[in-house]
């Protein structure tokens, strides 16, 4: 049976992740907590922590309303990477060879592997940034679509248009597709080789969580009473295909999803704090955590695929040992 080691914090968990085998929990109040021979707290930002993402297995990247972008190491040390003054850093992203990107206002800033920082201005605010899996290429989610840049090369950006507000972006692991979450209850995607559109609509709520399976065959999403899992096995992705529905519950919504590091097993978090795992192949389910306080906001598998760090909007965090 799975076992749960709780960590009761006070505040909204932005990100739960693993660094060097240790669970880290970044909270909206600017503090980052870690479990390392006891509970330890890091003062990362003065004011709101707006975005956090694991940089690699050794450090995580955070941005906040204090205009700072910080790297936090597994030992808890904090290194300031950039300081934009009074501008809120609302999105951060990590890329190949240590490249990072962060967004504030209408600007996307990219720090290249050699330490050079290039800035890209947009007509509307930068809502989300993602790196392509190969080569130095970023996508910026914005109002009415997304913009693709090659930060290390001169040249005009590629504009991908679709009416509406786009909030976050993700490339498929093979780099062939770009998918954005939207302010309306939908996803939108582009097949990058020919610009074909992928409309993924019909959600009863906004999609706030996305996760690719290890080999990129599936894209899981929140925003419904089940995890909606889109097929990407063919050259046209989900165009003309129906998604799988995993972990269906009639009375509550899925709020977070996280695919296993190697297997097509999906961790599913719900609005009531429950966590379930479901296998794509046969849709078999197993309960990992009973309902608790607050909706699950973030989940992450450790490098071995045995444990899941999770956080909720109420600070009800912890670690699930799937093997028990």
From TrEMBL:
Gene3D superfamilies from the UniProt entry: YVTN repeat-like/Quinoprotein amine dehydrogenase
InterPro entries (UniProt xref): Apc4-like_WD40_dom, Quinoprotein_ADH-like_sf, WD40/YVTN_repeat-like_dom_sf, WD40_rpt
Pfam family for this entry, one: ANAPC4_WD40
Domain Anaphase-promoting complex subunit 4-like WD40: 259-322
Full protein name: WD40 repeat domain-containing protein
Species, as recorded: Aquamicrobium zhengzhouense
């Amino acid at each position: 049976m799975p076992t749960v080691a709780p960590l009761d914090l006070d505040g909204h968990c932005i990100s739960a992740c693993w660094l060097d085998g240790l669970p880290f929990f970044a909270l909206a109040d600017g503090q980052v907590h870690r479990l390392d021979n006891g509970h330890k707290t890091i003062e990362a930002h003065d004011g709101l922590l707006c975005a956090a993402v694991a940089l690699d297995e050794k450090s995580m990247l955070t941005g906040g309303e204090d205009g700072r972008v910080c790297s936090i190491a597994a030992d808890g040390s904090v290194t300031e990477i950039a300081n934009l003054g009074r501008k809120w850093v609302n999105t951060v992203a990590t890329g190949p060879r240590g490249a990072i990107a962060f967004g504030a206002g209408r600007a996307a800033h990219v720090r290249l592997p050699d330490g050079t920082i290039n800035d890209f201005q947009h007509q509307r605010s930068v809502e989300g940034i993602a790196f392509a899996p190969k080569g130095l290429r970023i996508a910026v989610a914005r109002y009415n679509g997304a913009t693709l840049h090659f930060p290390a090369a001169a040249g005009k950006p590629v504009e991908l248009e679709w009416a509406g507000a786009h909030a976050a972006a993700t490339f498929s692991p093979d780099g062939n597709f770009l998918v954005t979450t939207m302010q309306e209850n939908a996803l939108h995607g582009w097949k990058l080789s020919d610009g074909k559109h992928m409309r993924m609509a019909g959600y009863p709520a906004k999609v706030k969580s996305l996760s690719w399976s290890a080999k990129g065959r599936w894209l899981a999403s929140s925003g419904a009473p089940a995890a909606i899992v889109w097929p990407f096995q063919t050259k046209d992705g989900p165009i003309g295909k129906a998604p799988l529905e995993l972990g269906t519950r009639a009375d509550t919504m899925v709020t977070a999803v996280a695919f296993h590091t190697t297997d097509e097993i999906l961790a599913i978090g719900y609005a009531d704090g429950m966590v379930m795992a479901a296998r794509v192949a046969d849709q078999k389910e197993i309960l990992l955590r009973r309902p608790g306080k607050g909706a699950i906001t973030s989940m992450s598998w450790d490098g071995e695929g045995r444990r899941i760090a999770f956080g909720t909007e109420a600070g009800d965090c912890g670690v699930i040992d799937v093997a028990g």
